[in-house]
Specification:
alpha+beta, 8-stranded antiparallel β-barrel, globular
């Protein structure tokens, strides 16, 4: 094999390797953010908030960022629920790398004046787990479902109402909930799926400092990715941004 042929083969192999790495880095990420700025919201108020104008606005903002990162974003009205509180939220799903999902959620968190957002990026060697529970019988009473999860020892969860019933998402940051999740799934008669990945809260307990954290995330990403396209219109993507139109939910 002559030198020229060896060089050509090396270039092709390097190109193929870079393509594989890029494909591995992009995956279906999940993000959780709320438009709520009130303290000590009651469960019934949080459920009512899922039909509020600010909830609808955040869903639209999430979808419209798809044009910025050139990837379709799905956004779902959701209930962020924990053992002693709740808030209306939005769960988004996007195929991207980890830096991009952090950027998207930082923009949403900043604009909604939030203290923190939560994301999950699938990665085989990640230190966290994401559990998804789908009860076999449709369960639409969110208050009852939250109570049953409390009694099963699942203190933090996100409930997403869909046409097929309510889907439950649990981000296990420290990989310590598997036994409780499986017990809860058994009590609910739910199918369980799980995947490993990186997960973290981004923000701060103080609202002003949280804004600084979000702005730093945004500046850092935009410095590495200059000349990003503008946001799109929820009725459809702008010119030159085909394939980025989002949806409000998934029909099952």
């Amino acid at each position: 094999m002559n030198h020229r042929l060896r060089s050509l083969l090396l270039i092709l192999l390097l190109g193929a390797a870079q393509t594989v790495v890029a494909q591995q880095q992009k995956s279906h990420n999940y993000g959780f953010v709320s438009p709520n700025t009130k303290e000590n919201l009651k469960l019934e108020d949080a459920i009512a908030g899922m039909s509020s104008p600010e909830e609808t606005k955040l869903v639209k903002q999430s979808i419209n960022l798809g044009c910025v990162v050139r990837s379709r974003i799905r956004a779902f009205k959701a209930l962020g629920s924990w053992s002693d509180g709740a808030e209306h939220s939005v769960m988004l799903r996007v195929e991207s790398d980890e830096a991009t999902v952090r950027y998207l959620l930082s923009r949403l968190g900043r604009d909604a004046r939030q203290k923190s957002i939560l994301y999950f990026h699938p990665r085989p060697a990640g230190a966290a787990d994401l559990y998804t529970l789908q009860p076999r019988r449709p369960m639409r009473n969110l208050a009852s479902l939250a109570d049953r999860l409390d009694r099963a020892g699942i203190a933090f969860r996100t409930l997403v109402p869909l046409k097929s019933g309510t889907r439950i998402y649990i981000v296990d940051l420290k990989r310590e909930l598997r036994a409780k999740v499986m017990a809860a799934a058994k009590r609910l008669g739910a199918r369980v799926s799980s995947e490993s990945g990186n997960a973290a809260f981004v923000g701060d307990d103080q609202a002003q400092q949280a804004q600084a954290v979000f702005n730093e995330e945004i500046r850092g990403y935009e410095a590495k990715n200059p000349n990003l396209p503008p946001t799109c219109d929820i009725k459809g993507p702008q010119r030159g941004t085909k394939g980025t139109k989002g949806t409000r939910g998934i029909k099952r």
